[in-house]
Write the structure tokens for this entry.
Amino acid sequence: MAARGRNSGRSAPTRTGDSTRGGPARTAGSTRGGGQRGGSPTRTGPARGANLTALRDRLTEVIAPVTEQAGFDLERVNVTRLGRRHRVQVIIDRDGGVGLDAIAEVSHAVSQALDAAEAAGTAVVPGEYVLEVSSPGVDRPLTEPRHWRRNIGRLVKVRVADGQTVTGRITDATADWVALDVDQTTRQLPYQQLGPGRIQVELRPLAADDEGEGDRT
């Protein structure tokens, strides 16, 4: 069990996943303590049953400037309860993808920003919390033009304005529309006519060299 107190209860950052574009999320995480005042740990801020939406909004106000300064888009901040702790998930992305070193740097910067807010008298997260910074996984819905642009070449499924669901490969994306190759026919679709796009997982065919690899001695 992690010790309580603002500068106690830390665990070394962990890195999981092996993502390139749209694969499993890359993650760095650490466990942090809650506020400590007058030498004894106390819980500050909202009570245990606090509105998580309000907590997420406060976190976003602190975290957004940090990720923007580092050159990343803040895709989402999630807050959930883990027993007596909160779990804070920060999802970031940028053109070219997000590497493990970048995630570790952003995790450190976000942690420092939360510490600074608490030192200034604002305990953003009450009590102990677990901070996780990661890149989007393959299950992230494509809802913004930048999402479509960053996934050019991938196969997606999306519902269009007429209620039809189409599956096609992204061949181009601008600020106004996305081009999908659907059955070898290019369809140019404005974003306002699209629902959230879902990346389709494609299994890599086994290459001929791989097939005989098990027979080698």
